Amino acid sequence: MKIIHKKIIISIFFLLAAIAACTNPFAPAYDEDYDNNRPPISDITTIEGVFQNFQYSYTFKDTLIYGELIGQEFIFTYRDYERGFDVSWARDDEMRSTNGLFENSQRLDLIWNNIILSTIDSLDANIVRSFNLNITFNPTDVVRVDGRVNLSLKQDPETKKWQITRWLDESNF
Length: 173
Prior knowledge:
six-stranded mixed sheet
């Protein structure tokens, strides 16, 4: 009887020690080393990083990542072919529009193709790049958009991060 009692006490001791050594996976510790200044996904101190984050934000419908790419002075312009004139809007409307697209689509597949034109100096860039975008609203409603973006970007001299300041849509949509 003493041996069984001793085994139970040892088992309980090891069980308590094991429980005390574990961390709760549902309440992880706060990451004290988190750096708010690091780029969201890719390094947006490069123009290619901006395009990678743009694609990521569409794929995962992430407005926080997308918002990091859009400058405060941003202007989006597209041609309204039915009315015969260009339509423009600023950053706030762009964020609302993009959020609506993210919320109302089931899937977004953005593919960046060739860079057609690239003019870059120390703090400004103009990139014209072709793309393919498939917007799946539901399995029977898929919209395909092909075209080019004509983007102006500015680099913050302090953070070195690039942001889109102008987007001229040259797509078929």
